[in-house]
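Let us begin with a simple case.
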Amino acid sequence: MGVSSSEHMFRAADRGASSGRHTSVARLFGTDGVRGVANQDITAELALDLSVAAAHVLAEVGAFNGHRPVAVVGRDPRASGEFLAAATVAGLASAGVDVRDAGVLPTPAIAYLVAEQDADLGAMLSASHNPMPDNGIKFFARGGHKLADDLEDRIEGRLREQWDRPTGADVGRITRLTDGADRYVAHLLSVLPHRLEGLHVVIDAAHGAASEVAPRAFREAGARVTLIGGEPDGLNINDGYGSTHIEPLQAAVVEAGADLGIALDGDADRCLAVDATGRLVDGDQIMAILAVAFKEHGTLPGDTLVATVMSNLGMIQALGSHGIKVLQTAVGDRYVLEGMRDGGFTLGGEQSGHVVMLDHGTTGDGTLTGLMLASRVAATGRPLADLASVMTRFPQVLVNVKDVDKGALEHNAAVADAVRTAESELGDSGRVLLRKSGTEPVVRVMVEAADTDQARAVADRLVGVVRSELAL
């Protein structure tokens, strides 16, 4: 099943600004909130000002329906999150918003609590899988949904404007939401299709926001749990553990003789897995396993999975053999969500392990994904390695071609000819994708093929053409 150049060759898969290390880009908001180095790019002043602007914009668009607004605020355990959360809470309260401070919880827990508490907005302080010095802020609208691009642009446009400040009883009040973890874990257990008795699961919590709730949820679901990366101290988040450092989990699963392992990231919105032999099970394989399971149970609307253009061709072909279609979107979970909502689909995600199940949540949820995966193992009695064999991962080569005129990519005839030649060579057993970085003068060349040598050879040829034709 080849992918035609007219469909995907020049897809701008990094629409808008990507959420990189710094915010010194044309658009402050990236694909996942505002993110950068804490106390340098992401300052207390910025967090306060963004919160005030968010309250004003949401009020103007009628999001509060004329009533006194309520917000839920959470953070991951980074040291900088302590002062950034305080600034965010202060900004919202100063704008007349009553704040329920949930403390340290995963991003999907805050999204869930916004809906569960019937709150008007939410804010999460986290830089997800980024190193500890980074931090970020993302907002949720009523129902726990991420804000649309136009609302983020309006918030950015209202930063530091003059405004009439409420006084007296009109200022917001701040309370602690002390049972947020209890409510979130109860929700996770309520949607689990099969309990986990008899399973031994190793959880790597990345010293992050799910260090308490993830092992608790698995234990209450009946699993025996071994926890690694579960001692956050404010400085060690994502440091050698979690979904970006899979090796400790692989070793721990084999050493413990566990059935499987689950790797989360710092804010627990993504999940990768490890089978009993220590072999990685990536986001594409997880989505394939869940898509087949959901179709069997009649809970996969349109028999369709929504995934990005970076998902492996092996997943697309395997699901096709099960009568499941794959709708591909630009890279970024917000674009996956757009595709899901537009088509009425409920399962989608990314190769990185960002899996969204709209029947149960509004954003990627690593703990929920891990629970659903373990539940499938328990329900079928099949090892994770056997379930993951539903697809064969095609070798994938990705090269970032730097210092090129990415704006000329779509109109260069030589590049287009080179892509057509590559696609003809690969036929149904491969795929080519060229896409532009959202923040750098970089073109990303991705090639999948039946074997690594062929993928590398085709990628090298394409990289050569891109460099010669688009060099700055």
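The second case is a distinct protein. As before, the sequence precedes its structure tokens.
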Amino acid sequence: MTRGIGAVVAVATALALAGCGSSSEGSEDRELTVFAAASLTDTFTELAEEFEKDHPGVKVTISFGGSSDLVAQIEDGAPADVFASADTKNMDELDNLATDPQDFAANTLEIATPPGNPAKITGFQDLAKAGTKVLVCAAEVPCGNATAQMEEETGVDIEPVSEEQSVSDVLAKVTSGDADAGVVYVTDVTAAGDTVTGVEFDEADQVVNTYPISTIDGSDDADLAQEFVDLVLSETGQKVLTDAGFIQP
């Protein structure tokens, strides 16, 4: 009788261990896909690393770009769990696809020039001087829309040599010496370090871009997506953003 009970216990234990083994082997890593405005590259890369440390087995993949381009991709069915826009206008374009937009940061414009500011740009009005090669973002991109608003506010009419699809494209061309100046965000100049010279201008606070973030309807992992949004809104996330030059919305 004792041997029979022992055999049953042994079989049960073996089955339990086998069950645990198959569960572990069958578990899969989780992936979170975030679409974010190009001006968030440094901050969201840092926050993604923080999120992965706090969520073992989770891989955060971020697609950075112009907010309008990202919206078009989401509307076309690109798999995204979270979207962070550089303005409310592009977030609004998603309508019901954005489940609960919340403002998490704000940004203002600044002029970026090649190191040393060889064209001697001193303010926004200098961008309209004849012969000055200026780069701006395209009008549908938040930084481009903000630049157009700034032109209207100041009465300055810029004739850019090129209109780019993101602030990162503007910065890349300025740092390579393709232009005398580019209109980007304060945070982009901060992130670029000594690869550019920043030129602040008094009128900058007249146009402020507010950044909203939202989970996307149809996300494969809505709970995980919300946890990433919560990190961005948390004290930790806000400190990362503030340290990068963002202001409170």
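The chain is about 40% helix and 20% strand. Confidence is low (pLDDT under 50) at residues 1-27.
Keep these points in mind for the review questions at the end of the chapter.
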